[in-house]
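C-alpha cells in:
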C-alpha cells in the first residue's frame, strides 16, 4: 500500500501552528518574544507598579537659582528631569538613582519655572512629579539721599529729599565723629520711615583715639514717600561731623541683611580691609562702608560700584560701595595716609 505524503507547505504550516500553540500556552514568553519593553519580574517594578518620586519641592534660593529636592521611590535605576521655561542647567537631565537634591542655575529674576521629575526602572517610567518656583527680583542698591553735618554739639542730623517710590526697605549708613565716645544712636525717625517701624542695628564699630569716631549700619522698613525726611538722633550732643547715607534696598527679600563682621580699627597706612564675612554666598549683595579719621584720598574697591564714594584723587570722611556678587573673604580699598580707619560690610541675602 502506498503511503500518502503531505505536501511540504502543509508541514511548514503545522510547525507554525504548533509554535503558535506554544505561544498561546506561555503568554509571558510571547510578551518577551514580541515586545521591546523590559521583562518584569516579581521583585522588580512594572509600568503599573513603579512609584513616582514623592515630596518633590522646588524652592527659589536666589534671583538666579532654585533648589530641587525629593524622596526616592523604593525601586528605580535613575530619573529624568526637565525644566520649563528655559534650559535646564546646574541639575542633570538624568539624575542618578542616589540623587535626591540639586540646584538649578542660570535662572532669570522674577520668573516662574516648573520642573518635572520621573523615576525610571530600566525602560519603565513612573508618573511625573512636578513643582514650580518663582525667583525673586534681583537685589539692587540705590543712594536716595545723604547729608553731612558739621554743626558743633548737635544731637541729631536730618537727611532731606528722600523719595522712596516703592516703599522698599532702607539701609542707613552712618559715620560720626564726636567730642566723646557717646556716639550711640538712640532713634531713627522721619517721614521716610513712617510712624510705625522697628529699626534694626546690623553692625557698629567705634574707632580712633578714645573711640570718638563710629560707623554704623541700620536696616529700617521703608514707606512710599516723596521728598521725605530721616532724622538720626544720638545719645549725646557732642557732634563734630556726621555723615548719613540713605540707601534703598530693592528685591523681594532685601529686608533681611545678615550681620557682617568688622575690620580691625585704628589702622595707619594706605590700605583698609573689611573682615571676613560669615554665611555669605556669591549670590548675596554686599555693601562696604568706611569711616576715616581725617579727609583723605580713597578709591573704590575692585568689583564694587560707588554709591557714595569719591574717585581717586578726591577727599572725604566716609565712603560706601556695593557689589551684586559678594565675597566671603572680605574686601579692601586703598587710601592716602590716615591715622585711623574703620570699615563695615553688610551682606544682603536674596
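Residues out:
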Amino acid at each position: 500500500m502506498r503511503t500518502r505524503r503531505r505536501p511540504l507547505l502543509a508541514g511548514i504550516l503545522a510547525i507554525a501552528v504548533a509554535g503558535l500553540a506554544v505561544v498561546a500556552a506561555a503568554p509571558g514568553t510571547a510578551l518577551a518574544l514580541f515586545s521591546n519593553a523590559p521583562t518584569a519580574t516579581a521583585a522588580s517594578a512594572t509600568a503599573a507598579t513603579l512609584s513616582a518620586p514623592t515630596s518633590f519641592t522646588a524652592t527659589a534660593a536666589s534671583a538666579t537659582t532654585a533648589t530641587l529636592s525629593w524622596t526616592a521611590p523604593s525601586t528605580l535605576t535613575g530619573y529624568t528631569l526637565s525644566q520649563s521655561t528655559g534650559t535646564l542647567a546646574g541639575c542633570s537631565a538624568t539624575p542618578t538613582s542616589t540623587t535626591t537634591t540639586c540646584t538649578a542655575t542660570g535662572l532669570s529674576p522674577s520668573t516662574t519655572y516648573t520642573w518635572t521629575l520621573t523615576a525610571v526602572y530600566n525602560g519603565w517610567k513612573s508618573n511625573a512629579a512636578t513643582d514650580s518656583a518663582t525667583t525673586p527680583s534681583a537685589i539692587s542698591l540705590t543712594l536716595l539721599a545723604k547729608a553731612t553735618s558739621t554743626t558743633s554739639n548737635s544731637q541729631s542730623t536730618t537727611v532731606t529729599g528722600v523719595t522712596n517710590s516703592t516703599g522698599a526697605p532702607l539701609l542707613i549708613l552712618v559715620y560720626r565723629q564726636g567730642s566723646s565716645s557717646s556716639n550711640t544712636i538712640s532713634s531713627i525717625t522721619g517721614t521716610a520711615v513712617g510712624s510705625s517701624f522697628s529699626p534694626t542695628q546690623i553692625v557698629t564699630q567705634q574707632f580712633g583715639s578714645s573711640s570718638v569716631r563710629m560707623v554704623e549700619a541700620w536696616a529700617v522698613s521703608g514707606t512710599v514717600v516723596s521728598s521725605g525726611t530721616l532724622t538720626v538722633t544720638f545719645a549725646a550732643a557732642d557732634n563734630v561731623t556726621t555723615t548719613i547715607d540713605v540707601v534703598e534696598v530693592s528685591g523681594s527679600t532685601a529686608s533681611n541683611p545678615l550681620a557682617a563682621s568688622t575690620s580691625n580699627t585704628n589702622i595707619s597706612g594706605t590700605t583698609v580691609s573689611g573682615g571676613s564675612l560669615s554665611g555669605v554666598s556669591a549670590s548675596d549683595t554686599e555693601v562696604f562702608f568706611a569711616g576715616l579719621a581725617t579727609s583723605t584720598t580713597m578709591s573704590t574697591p575692585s568689583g564694587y560700584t560707588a554709591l557714595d564714594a569719591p574717585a581717586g584723587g578726591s577727599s572725604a570722611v566716609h565712603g560706601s560701595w556695593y557689589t551684586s556678587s559678594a565675597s566671603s573673604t572680605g574686601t579692601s580699598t586703598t587710601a592716602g595716609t590716615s591715622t585711623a580707619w574703620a570699615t563695615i560690610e553688610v551682606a544682603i541675602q536674596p
